[in-house]
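User: Predict Sporulation protein's structure from this.
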Amino acid sequence: MRMFLLVVLTMALLSGCNHQNTASPSPQSQQGPTAASTGDHHRLSLRSAGNTAVRSAEDTTDLALKDHLENIAEKVNGVKKAHAVVLGNTAVVGIDVDGNLTRSRVGTIKYTVAEALKKDPRGKNALVTADMDLSSRIAEIGQHIQKGEPVSGFASELADIVGRIVPQLPRDVKSRQNSPSSPSPTR
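Assistant:
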């Protein structure tokens, strides 16, 4: 085990010390935003009330996807408002429903929204929540995005939200194998 750890650490050290034979960029040749303002190149998308001409094509498609997913969710009967955050190929959609509904009715509405999003090719990887707290947190994250704040400022909050929606990812679950010594249940 120690030898394996030593090999892994050595490989990490060697790969981190690679020298790249390219010229460093000149500060005079930079155009557009300065390096200090683009410290975090990964930005989440949100419907923008401001300057959309500055956004890249990727941001525009993320904005369109966000709007599209919100519209799909809001068309479901019982959904008052929907909030969405798009990050890469995954979206988190929070829905606001009437607070007087029973828990089973809220679950039915959430399931209907998930089905509607699954039918849409661009909504297949969307996570849906009807939790009031999570939905308001998604809306707050949307406000941060609208202000142009980088992902790093609220990435942990978004990770907490996804962790509450999907506590265990299916790909992380190891399949159980029945041991030959354990008796199988009879019916």
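The longest helix spans residues 57-74.
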